[in-house]
Write a structure and sequence with these properties.
The protein has 140 residues and is mainly beta. It is 14% helix and 47% strand. The chain contains 1 helix and 12 strands. The strands form 4 sheets. Strands 4-12-11-7-8 form a 5-stranded mixed beta sheet, with no helix packed on it. A hairpin with a 3-residue loop joins strand 2 and strand 3. The longest helix is centred in the N-terminal third of the chain and has 19 residues. The protein is globular, with a radius of gyration of 21 Å. The protein starts with a helix and ends with a strand.
């Protein structure tokens, strides 16, 4: 009976400890997409499926991203080769302290999806290392 009681206490402690441990599906930073960003309403039309045209790429992190020069790159899925191929790349300048950034059409970036398909989108640092990425489907 003493062994059962000790085993029960040990099991209870493990269960309680396990309940306090957080498990996250994706670590920071996170990339997602919306139709546009509005200073009053925030992200408008968040989804991962859009029609052709201009979109806004959002990146959110718990910590400062530490970026100055960065790039948004689109790679398009090629069904003939079952792989992704380079499609477009856009340059941006941001502040290293930023944790929440929206990348959209501006004078330097014509961030338009002209063709339907599956795209892999990357936020790359100045050395082309991946900071965040996500998939998006573009339909007609």
């Amino acid at each position: 009976m003493k062994n059962f009681r000790a085993l029960f206490i040990l099991f209870s402690l493990l269960v309680l400890y396990g309940m306090q441990t957080a498990i996250y599906a994706q670590s920071s930073p996170v990339m997602f997409f919306c139709e546009r960003y509005d200073s009053k309403y925030g992200e408008v039309g968040v989804s991962d499926r859009f029609t052709t045209g201009y979109l806004t790429v959002m990146v959110k992190s718990n910590d400062p991203l530490g970026l100055t020069d960065c790039h948004i790159q689109f790679d398009k899925f090629n069904p003939d080769t079952y792989g992704f191929e380079y499609y477009k790349k856009f340059d941006f300048v941001v502040r290293p302290s930023m944790k929440y950034i929206y990348f959209s059409k501006n004078e330097n970036a014509d961030m338009k999806f002209e063709e339907p398909g599956i795209y892999r989108v990357f936020l790359l640092d100045s050395k082309d290392r991946t900071v965040a990425s996500a998939l998006i489907e573009i339909i007609r």
